[in-house]
User: Which sequence fits this backbone?
């Protein structure tokens, strides 16, 4: 059942009453700025600013089918006394009245505030930060998050994230879920699984109506990549998990990709063309770090050894699925794979933050002696993983940090060329974040993982939250932050554990 407008507004008011500080951040009742504001993809000269006009967000947006002018301005101060850039842009009906403003001409390494005006209304102000030029002594603090099934919990983690001292946020996928699943829901999608563009727009609008999520977008610039649930669980490239007709599935993928673009602070170069969208990109952060933001869904080979009559994932005994070892299997597609390898080689010295969807470390899930692997993640593409990690080893890249999501479990792992050989050297470090809300694996499954995978230094599937990474030239410290209770919208948060990686020495040590 869909929330009526009155119910939606009541829910918004209740949320505001719980957190008076957020009240100012919410748009007035008839404003088109119901989905908040966002920024993303910072560089030393600017970033991208985003909003979408949607006075009736859960019902197609509620805008007339015509272009609407949107004014934007960027200031050096929160009160907008010193405005340094402004302009106008048309919000077009064919793009859901979203705008993506690629701002340039700003100064490096400083905070800016931005806001929009349209239809006589003014948006809340957002805050963003440009990336630094190459300057010694720089630091970088960012949070990464993933997997925010709306029905399984509240976004209290984002309320806490918005109050952190961060330079940016990285989202690693499952920003929306197309499906209802899991136990003990605290709130409901209220609509069936999306298939059309209108369906996906309404699903994004529901998620983005959350005040805590809006607050985290308004506080920092974001980088983002998707995983499967932005389209459909376990889809791979042009294949649906239910082996739907290929053309019909690509039409659905086109709708889902367009809705993703319309709701994220993506630069205009990412605008999709039909069922194709450029998402992977590189983002330098001064001389300190480089983000490689990867797309492990659009170009991946179909999963091997599926259940009869299905596409998608399966858990298979390694012995019974030799197809897994096929060299031709790729998670990124060969052009992206080459591009990643080249980018890792090109900038020695910097931290490499490899931002991608799913757990890279081998994760033998077999409860007995035999190895069993889940085919949707890297364990379904072991030769592609080996190519990447061998490249890192051979090029002597000593400071690659992989960040990942998808598995709803926090994990810290040593990455090796050969996970089955205990003497194989540690060549990179992985921090897998847990989910914002999505339910994780049972304690028993996690115990099996820890018992059978010595390169997993830490794993916990019971926590909901995010990870903060703090880097300087010498070290990278990762802190896992978890909610007391994801079912409580006012939940507190606490530090679970911190791990450090020394620059030039792969592998994390517990602090
Ligand atoms: Fe997920
Ligand atoms: Ca996923």
Assistant:
């Amino acid at each position: 059942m869909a929330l009526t407008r009155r119910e939606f507004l009541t829910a918004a008011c209740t949320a505001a009453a719980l957190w008076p500080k957020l009240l100012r951040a919410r748009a007035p009742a008839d404003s088109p700025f119901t989905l908040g504001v966002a920024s993303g993809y910072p560089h030393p000269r600017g970033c991208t600013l985003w909003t979408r006009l949607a006075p009736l967000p859960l019902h197609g947006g509620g805008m007339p089918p015509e272009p609407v002018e949107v004014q934007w301005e960027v200031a050096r101060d929160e009160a907008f006394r010193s405005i340094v850039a402004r302009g106008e842009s048309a919000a077009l009906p064919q793009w859901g009245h979203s705008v993506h403003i690629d701002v340039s001409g700003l100064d490096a390494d400083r905070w800016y505030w931005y806001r929009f005006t349209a239809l006589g209304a003014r948006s809340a102000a957002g805050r963003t930060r440009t990336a630094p030029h190459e300057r010694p002594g720089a630091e970088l603090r960012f949070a990464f998050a993933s997997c925010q099934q709306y029905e399984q919990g509240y976004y209290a983690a984002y309320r806490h994230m918005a109050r952190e001292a961060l330079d940016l946020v990285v989202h690693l996928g499952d920003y929306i879920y197309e499906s209802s699943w899991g136990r003990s829901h605290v709130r409901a999608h209220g609509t069936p699984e999306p298939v059309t563009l209108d369906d996906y727009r309404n699903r994004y609008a529901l998620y983005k109506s959350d005040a805590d999520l809006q607050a985290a977008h308004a506080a920092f610039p974001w980088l983002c990549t998707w995983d499967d649930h932005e389209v459909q669980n376990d889809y791979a490239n042009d294949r649906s998990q239910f082996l739907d007709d290929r053309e019909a599935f690509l039409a659905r993928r086109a709708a889902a990709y367009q809705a993703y673009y319309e709701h994220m602070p993506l630069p205009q170069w990412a605008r999709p063309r039909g069922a194709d969208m450029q998402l992977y990109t590189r983002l330098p952060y001064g001389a300190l770090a480089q983000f490689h933001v990867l797309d492990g869904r659009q170009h991946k080979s179909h999963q091997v050894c599926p259940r009869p009559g299905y596409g998608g994932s399966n858990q298979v005994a390694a012995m019974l699925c030799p197809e897994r070892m096929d060299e031709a299997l790729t998670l990124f597609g060969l052009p992206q794979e080459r591009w990643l390898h080249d980018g890792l080689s090109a900038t020695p010295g910097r931290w490499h933050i490899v931002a991608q969807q799913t757990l890279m470390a081998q994760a033998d899930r077999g409860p007995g002696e035999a190895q069993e692997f889940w085919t949707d993640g890297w364990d379904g593409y072991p030769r592609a993983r080996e190519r990447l990690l061998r490249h890192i080893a051979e090029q002597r890249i000593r400071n690659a940090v992989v960040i990942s999501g998808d598995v709803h479990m926090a994990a810290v792992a040593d990455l090796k060329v050969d996970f089955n050989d205990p003497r194989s050297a540690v060549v990179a470090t992985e921090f897998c974040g847990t989910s914002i809300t999505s339910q994780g694996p049972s304690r028993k499954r996690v115990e099996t993982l820890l018992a059978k995978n010595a390169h997993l230094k830490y794993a916990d599937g019971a926590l909901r939250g995010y990870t903060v990474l703090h880097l300087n030239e010498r070290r990278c410290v990762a802190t896992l932050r978890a909610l007391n209770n994801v079912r409580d919208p006012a939940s507190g948060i606490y530090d679970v554990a911190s791990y450090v990686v020394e620059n030039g020495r792969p592998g994390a040590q517990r602090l």
